[in-house]
Amino acid sequence: MWLERLCWRRRFFRCFAVFVLLFMVWMFISFMLTFNDEDFPEDVVYDIFIDETRDDHPHIPLDQEILEEAARKKAEKRYGSVKDIDPTDPIIMWWTEFTLEPGKAKSCKDKRCFFTNNRAFKNHKNLRAFMFYGTDFSSKDLPLPRQKHHEWGLLHEESPKNNYLLCHEETLTLFNHTSTFRRESDFPITTQHLHSLKWLESDLYTKTISQKNRYQQQDGLAPVMYVQSDCDPPSDRDSFVKLLMKHVKVDSYGTCLHNKHLAHPIESPLEGMAHRDFYELISRYKFALSMENAVCKDYITEKFWRPLMVGTVPIAFGSPAIHDFFPNNSSVISILNFTSVEDLASKINELNERDSDYDKLRTWKYTGVTNADLLKILKEREWTPDDEQTWTWGNINFVDAFECHVCEQVHKNLEAEARGNSQASKSANLHHYGCPIPLKFDGSGKYGQFNERNSWSTLYQNQKIVAESLKECVALGLSYCGDYIAKGNKRHRDF
Ligand SMILES: *[C@@H]1O[C@H](CO)[C@@H](O)[C@H](O)[C@H]1NC(C)=O
Ligand SMILES: *[C@@H]1O[C@H](CO)[C@@H](O)[C@H](O)[C@H]1NC(C)=O
Ligand SMILES: *[C@@H]1O[C@H](CO)[C@@H](O)[C@H](O)[C@H]1NC(C)=O
Ligand SMILES: *[C@@H]1O[C@H](CO)[C@@H](O)[C@H](O)[C@H]1NC(C)=O
């Protein structure tokens, strides 16, 4: 082989040169393969790629061109012809591809709108609203410059963990219509993970107190269970559970603080666990830690409803107003109600010993939900959670329902315009989402400590700066905000 000959016949220099060359080619190829903007967190991108030369062409920034080209190609391939649109329907476009809807007219009560994911409609004269799915909302990819008649809708049912940009008022005021977990949003979906009243009150899995005691004595179950595989989230829940474990036995099945394997008959891995088996497992415990990944008013997930459904008492942490959603005043233990982890632990131990006190927390399971506000919310909601468990024909999921909400608002504004008076401008504010800065638990188990080294709170603060620049940029009518925000970041750092 030529390489062998080259290197073994004392042609050391040539051999060395070939290796250097090969190494450089390898470096270049691997650099090209990994070099992709999307892989970098936003701030890193700004540090490295503030490209001053772009200022010469402020109207056609590079990223924007690429994005539009990509959208065009996608549109051509996937969506085909767009001829059959009714010229009178207002167009509502999902700017972040979310519904995968190429284009379809939809009736909402007596109004009609044309919904599409296809960005080719961006400059269509009928385009009235852009919809955004919160997780995918990015300051670097927006339908700009914003026209006066462009209404923006935000759907975000997730915690801020996915996008801290939306925690800030500067971002939220860009939207006219919101659907989030907050009760203050225009189309609230706070109970998105609560399937139905019947489901919540069901006694399908509920165990009696003597059954629960038997699981502890015979099977060695702890009084409390914890299942979490998303470790160290913004709510800092694992720190609290770690403290609690010093005082109370906790069975932890997930990867976070794992100390217990799933036993027969529930052997399958957690992620793939059929609901039935999982419900059965929770129902054997007296308490289940129900801690959200972020602390936000009204952010409530299945972690809270699941134990209630199976007759287990949740130990809840997440929304500071969670008590508004208790089935009954005494049905849940709220971590915020205790001044220290020791206090909570002695309460748990006490309830674990006293059967009748424990069962008082479950009286509602037999007599029904008594919280009038919760009953009202469930009665009045016009949609059902998008979940196969409750899927029956005739149900509308909340995505469809929010689309119709925006469609109706768009028509209202169109009618006002036709009458010659412009509709009063309406935009969202901090209360439509607005989660506070993530904090930490202190050594006594009290939530509320600001920690300099908390990467979540740093992210929160960085996104505040992005939000401020974004607001300015949109107001200036620029067609792309990436560069503007990068400059703002840089300015900020120079101070
Ligand atoms: C019970 O709930 C109501 C509202 O549902 C509240 O006003 C009241 O303070 C609660 N009582 C107790 C003892 O927690
Ligand atoms: C909170 O604490 C008060 C007083 O200790 C108690 O009456 C109430 O039931 C507790 N509420 C919850 C949700 O634990
Ligand atoms: C909670 O349930 C108990 C037992 O059913 C009931 O006596 C009490 O009035 C309920 N609390 C509220 C606030 O409705
Ligand atoms: C929508 O929100 C924007 C930004 O806050 C505002 O300028 C505009 O007037 C609003 N439009 C309507 C129809 O409310």
Major beta-sheet overview = 6 strands, mixed
List cofactors, ions and other ligands.
2-acetamido-2-deoxy-beta-D-glucopyranose
Rg:
27 Å
Q: Number of domains in the coordinates?
A: 3
Low-pLDDT windows of residues? 34-67, 78-83
**Number of beta strands:** 13
Distance between the termini: 61 Å
Q: What is the H/E order?
A: HHHHEEEEEHEHHEHEHEHEEHHHHHEEHH
Helix content: 25-40%
Shape call: globular
Mean pLDDT: 84
Total helices: the number is 17
Strand content: 5-15%
Task: Please list the strands of the largest sheet in the order they lie side by side.
Answer: 2-3-1-4-5-6
Question: Please, what is the oligomeric state?
Answer: single chain
Structural classification = alpha/beta
Subcellular location: Endomembrane system; Golgi apparatus, Golgi stack membrane
Protein name: Fucosyltransferase
Domain Fucosyltransferase N-terminal: 90-189
Family: Belongs to the glycosyltransferase 10 family.
